[in-house]
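# nightly structure sweep
# worker-07 picked up a monomer target from the shared queue
# config: single-sequence mode, recycle default, output format = structure tokens
# input follows
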Amino acid sequence: MRIHIATDHAGLEFSRTLQAHLTNAGHEVIDHGPVEYDALDDYPAFCINAALGVARDQAAGTKALGVVFGGSGNGEQIAANKVPGIRAALVWSMDTAILAREHNDANVISIGARQHTVEEAIRYIDAFIAEPFSGDERHVRRIAQLGEYETTGDIAGKGVDVAPASGTGAPTGA
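# output follows
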């Protein structure tokens, strides 16, 4: 499987260790940066590029997942989720790693490098990669609703407030 990796300075050592682990496990690793330590670097472009790589690969039929790191993992998850077709989950335990795939068919996970040991992160990532999506109808339905909102700005029949064209900011139906 192809694994896209990105981080910022806080996760650089994690990233290097993880890349070696994943390569040794037979995965093709694509590093989206950074390549050297810079305490002032910014994670958004790195993480967005990793998410774009996952989205492009999946659209082309290539099996791919992504892993992004940062101090807490929060900003990195937010950045990855800006890419259409990406479902990035913040992982902090074995359960969240497994459920991200099993229930949400997440294709990217984010881990806080300052919150976990490298060994913990490797266990979470290995579990995430190994866990298949359950395909249960309720999960498929919910993921489809997220995709519908992502492409149309609405979820038909579900009561999503849609901003009016007039720019007043009041929800339609108010």
